[in-house]
Request: fold
Amino acid sequence: MMKKHIFKACIMIASSAVMLPLMAATQLTADINAGKTIANQGGGAVAPCMTCHGANGEGMGISNFPRLAGSSQYYLRKQLEDFKSGKRQQALMQPMAAGLNDQQILNVSAYYASLPTPNLTKPAVVDPAIYAAGEQLAENGDIARQLVACANCHGPRGIGLPPAIPALIGQSSGYIEAQLNAWQSGNRKNDDGGLMTEVASNLTAEDIAAVAAYYSSVRQTESTP
Ligand code: HEC
Ligand code: HEC
Reply:
């Protein structure tokens, strides 16, 4: 039952989100070059994004700074707006987003969306049994426990379902784990319809470690790390 409900909701979010950027585009037009300047040089009180998110938006796994490159403009913009409004809370990112106006948020989102999604340069070395458990849950779910497959929304191998559903491939295990724990504890609650809150609430710590290990090391074309 949960599976059906959540899958329908997922399609609804994915399709309604298509309309939003189109509507907003009548007011603001993205300037990718201006976005690149913010990413590399910052502006005003805002630090260059690259100091934490890497020279090409590839992220810094070791510090749990997420990959931005290749995420959709819609998703990145939504996250920045949520940090700015306080709907998504995080001590490092809230001041960054607060220092950007709507045009700058659009520009920098468009810039990172224009970059290719990289594989992590140094994929995590993971225990094959944990990887296999993560792959099983991510790609197939667990019917006995009524756990829906992450792939239903995030696509096979976590390639994402733009615009609303982010890719998980290329994110570090630490970042993925931190986000799932944040939803579980209620620290992150900016997901429309509470989809991720519901998903995360049904996961054990072992599930979280396993899917994080899987997504941080899966490649777009291979089935094992
Ligand atoms: C001082 C380090 C730092 C700087 C500088 C920084 N960020 Fe971040 N950013 C973070 C951290 C840490 C997170 C993860 C927040 C969390 O755990 O919720 C994050 C998350 C994000 C996310 C959410 C990504 C996702 O997948 O949900 C976006 C978008 C983002 N940052 C954009 C930017 C932009 C644009 C800039 C430059 C204007 C910037 N950041 C500068 C540290 C930084
Ligand atoms: C019903 C659809 C749905 C399912 C199933 C689902 N997700 Fe999500 N997930 C989302 C949506 C929508 C977002 C974006 C939330 C937002 O806008 O902040 C998201 C975001 C995330 C993020 C944050 C990515 C980032 O860049 O910050 C992680 C991590 C994540 N999901 C992991 C998982 C895992 C692991 C599973 C399976 C156990 C899963 N999700 C199942 C819909 C889903």
